[in-house]
Specification:
Elements lengths: L4 H11 L3 E6 L11 H9 L3 E4 L1 H17 L5 E2 L4 H10 L13 H12 L3 E7 L3 H8 L6 E4 H13 L29 H4 L12 E5 L1 H8 L9 E5 L17 H15 L39
Parallel strand pairs: 1-2, 1-4, 3-7, 4-5, 6-7
Helix pairs in contact: 1-7, 3-5
Length: about 300
């Protein structure tokens, strides 16, 4: 069967001697079943399977503090690399408004790298743009594959008997974990989980999805009272990413993520829960070559 270069790279990593962490975006439930996918990845050879939810929780804390300390500044979310690149190239007048905080992918990878320095990291995403974003962070993330490529990897593993029918210790995600940020891949998910009540009024936030809406807003003068733009490039959010297999309507995909969130509310986190102490010494500011770190220096780790 045909496999992409990145899938071949992951196959090589699985056959290598280093332990591997599979880092999953929470939108995976659009294409794959929970918790079956966790079990399958471990039977395939991944030592640990982690989700981006704790990384999202941490960057929310930075967003919250930066917005609070800069009441006269309008900020644009940078969870989506396409949005950040598009603003810098097509709307440079707003480049200084980009939030100087890394994406959930980079935040989670930095936390995992600090706590599991002897593991390699493979990110599994709904968006091929994450491959380019990963390059910004050097050797932090060893490989990125989309959900379409994960399907290729699973088929290859099945055909080549790489899936060992071993019993895994747990069908749940390994550390580091949160639950409520599972809606991050849905349009508006970031601002909904930001706990913004004490820093932003509802009419100060605009949720955008898709290049047409971006062009319409950025090509005009953004109203002065707007303080935060929660922007994702794909229609519906990351659940509409080009790396997704599903052909279902966006609403059906959205329903799967919301159902997954409800299921997670009834699970015990236990030792899987991500703790603030697990992030000590980890930086969450963006590299200056990607986005300038204006405002980040004013942000203190007082949470």
């Amino acid at each position: 069967m045909e496999t992409s270069a990145d899938v071949k790279k992951v196959i090589g990593l699985l056959k290598g001697k280093k332990k591997l962490i599979a880092m999953l975006a929470p939108s995976f439930v659009v294409d794959f079943k929970y918790p079956d996918t966790i079990i399958l990845l471990k039977q395939m050879g991944f030592d640990k399977v982690s989700e981006l939810t704790f990384g999202a929780r941490i960057i929310n804390k930075y967003y919250h503090e930066i917005i609070k300390k800069n009441p006269d500044t309008m900020f644009i979310s940078t969870a989506c690399p396409v949005v950040a690149m598009m603003v810098k190239s097509q709307y440079p007048q707003y480049a200084g408004n980009l939030m100087p905080v890394v994406s959930p992918m980079a935040a989670t990878a930095r936390i995992l790298d600090k706590n599991y320095p002897n593991h390699d990291i493979v990110f599994i995403a709904p968006c091929p743009a994450k491959k380019e974003e990963a390059k910004i962070y050097g050797k932090l993330i060893d490989a990125v594959i989309t959900y379409k490529e994960l399907k290729q990897l699973i088929e290859y593993a099945q055909e080549n008997k790489m899936i060992k029918p071993k019993k895994v210790k747990s069908h749940l995600f390994d550390r580091f974990y949160a639950d409520y940020t599972k809606i991050y891949p849905i349009s508006g998910g970031l601002s909904k989980t930001l706990h913004k009540r004490d820093i932003l009024k509802e009419n100060e936030v605009i949720v955008l999805e898709g290049p047409a809406e971006m062009q319409k807003l950025f090509s005009s003068k953004i109203p002065k009272h707007i303080r935060f733009l929660d922007v994702l490039f794909c229609k519906g959010g990351c659940i509409g990413g080009p790396g997704v297999n599903s052909q279902e309507p966006i609403e059906a995909r959205r329903a799967k993520v919301l159902s997954y969130l409800e299921l997670a509310k009834h699970e015990k986190m236990g030792k899987r829960r991500g703790m603030i102490k697990d992030t000590e010494g980890v930086e969450f500011n963006t590299p200056k070559k990607y986005i300038g770190n204006k405002c980040f220096t004013e942000c203190e780790r007082d949470f």
